Amino acid sequence: MSTQNQCGMLWGSALAVGAESFRRYKNHGQALAIAITGTQHIVESFSKRAKSVNCREIIGFDIKDKFDMVEFMLKSLPSGFSNMICMNLAEKWAPEAIQSAKEGLSDELTDSPQLPASCASEVAKKMGASNEEMVMVAGLAGGMGLSGNACGALGAAIWIDTLAWCRNNPGKSGYANPNAKEILKAFYDVTGSEISCAKLSGQCFKTIDDHTEFVKNGGCNRLINVLGQS
Asked: What pTM, to 2 d.p., does this model score?
């Protein structure tokens, strides 16, 4: 399974959790930490419901393959099988997602000796993102909620760039952003086309402090800089 195909429902939920964390917590460090914790909760919830966090495993298609993409599009028509899978999953998971997000956003964090860091937020900062946008992408850290899946820094870079592109091109779909492929190419040039956070970092982070130490000690520094300049 290629880890870049994380389900869009899960990805969007992570951004929503980050937005709510920013609204609730005025302290920037606390908002970052709660965004990560909240995302951990929704990743766990989604995994239990869908049995995977990856789009291809859920819908049964590799959307990078042009033949699979055509078949998926045909089956995603209003009455199509793939469309039914996604709609049914969204309907069943929605109340669970809300509940898990509430639990994550209400978690009491233990005192930490240092301010939390998120690789995704670091990229967003380098790209000129606002404090709110930095918190919104924070949960993508460590492969989304520290789960070790697809690189959260890459996701943050594409989202921040597309957000800016949409603001400059009102009325146009973000899917038309021509910069996204360039960002992905720059990412692949650095990583040798590897996209799994666990493989890129050499570990799965157990705690926010573990991830913070990794980032502050220069972990993925080259990658963060390349994406931040994209």
From this structure: 0.81
